[in-house]
C-alpha cells in the first residue's frame, strides 16, 4: 500500500510543472507498485489543486519574473507560445476547448498550462477551474489506462 513518505513524494512529484500526473501516475504504479485506483485518485486531486495555486500566485509570478531579465524573457516566450497553442481551442470551443487542451496527455498541456492559458486569455476563473479539473480527470484516466496497459485490450 505504500508508506506515508512514498505517498507524499508522489504527491509532490505531481506538483512539478513538467511532470504533473503524466509522470506521477506511471511512477506510482510502475516504480512504487502503489494501488492503481488510489494512485490515480490522489494524483488527480493533487493535479487539480495546481489551478487555484496558479490563480492565486499569478500576480506574484509576473512580479518576480519581471525583476529578473532572463526569467522575464523566458516567461514572455513561454506565455506567447502557450497563447498560440491554447487560443485556437478556447476560441473555437470555449470551456470545452480548455478542457480538451488540458486533457491531452502531452507535455505542456496540463493543469499549469491550462491555468496560465485561462489567465492570459481572461477566462472566468470559476469556469476555467471546472474546465481544467475535468481535463485533469480525463488526462488522469488516459494516463492510468496507458500505464496499466488497459488500452491494449481495445
Automatic annotation (TrEMBL):
Q: Do the record's keywords include Transmembrane helix?
A: yes
For this UniProt record, the keywords arranged alphabetically read as follows:
Membrane, Transmembrane, Transmembrane helix
TM segment ranges: 6-29, 41-65, 93-116, 128-151
Know the name of this protein? Hypothetical membrane protein
The scientific name of the source species is Caldisericum exile (strain DSM 21853 / NBRC 104410 / AZM16c01)
